[in-house]
């Protein structure tokens, strides 16, 4: 028959073995998580790099948009100048400028151009921000 002391030592040995198994199990779980972390980290890094490359690529197209805006702006300025001339000529002839269809159409176009100009400057601001980030 075992003494109480022997029983206590036997129980302690079992507890120590269980603790070691638990520690090994936790360590194995950590190793698995590290491998998973490394795989996910590589995927995330690759996806972010791809995203940055797309942004940089899109931003390379902006100079052509700037050229189109320059042409558009010249056209609007020319339209305004011609509209001023039309207004002066109509006054000289005593014609009501609002009766001239080209006057109404030109004014409508100039009013719409304000939206396009604002949109261009918003895009330009974004393009500069992107360029500054790279």
How are helices and strands ordered from N to C? HHH
Count of the domains: 2
Low-confidence stretches: none
- Structural class, by secondary structure, is mainly alpha
Q: What is the beta-strand fraction?
A: under 5%
Mean pLDDT: 85
> Main sheet?
none
Termini separation comes to 80 Å
How would you describe the overall organization of this protein?
- With 134 residues, the protein is mainly α.
- It has 2 domains: 1-59; 61-134.
- 90% of the residues lie in helices and 0% in strands.
- It has 3 helices and no strands.
- The protein has helices at residues 4-59, 62-93, 101-133.
- Helix 2 packs antiparallel against helix 3.
- The longest helix is centred in the N-terminal third of the chain and has 56 residues, at 4-59.
List the helices and strands and how they pair.
Layout: H1 4-59, H2 62-93, H3 101-133
Helix pairs in contact: 2-3
Can you tag this structure with a few keywords?
mainly alpha, 134 residues, 90% helix, rod-shaped, 2 domains
């Amino acid at each position: 028959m075992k003494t109480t002391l022997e029983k206590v030592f036997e129980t302690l040995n079992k507890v120590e073995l269980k603790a070691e198994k638990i520690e090994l199990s936790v360590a194995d779980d950590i190793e698995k998580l590290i491998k998973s972390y490394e795989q996910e980290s590589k995927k995330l890094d690759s996806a972010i790099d791809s995203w940055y490359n797309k942004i940089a690529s899109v931003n390379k197209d902006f100079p052509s948009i700037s050229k189109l805006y320059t042409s558009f702006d010249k056209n609007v300025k020319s339209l305004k100048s011609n509209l001023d001339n039309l207004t002066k000529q109509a006054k000289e002839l005593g014609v009501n400028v609002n009766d001239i269809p080209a006057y109404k159409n030109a004014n409508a176009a100039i009013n719409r151009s304000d939206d396009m100009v604002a949109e261009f400057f918003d895009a330009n601001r974004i393009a500069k921000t992107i360029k500054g980030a790279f």
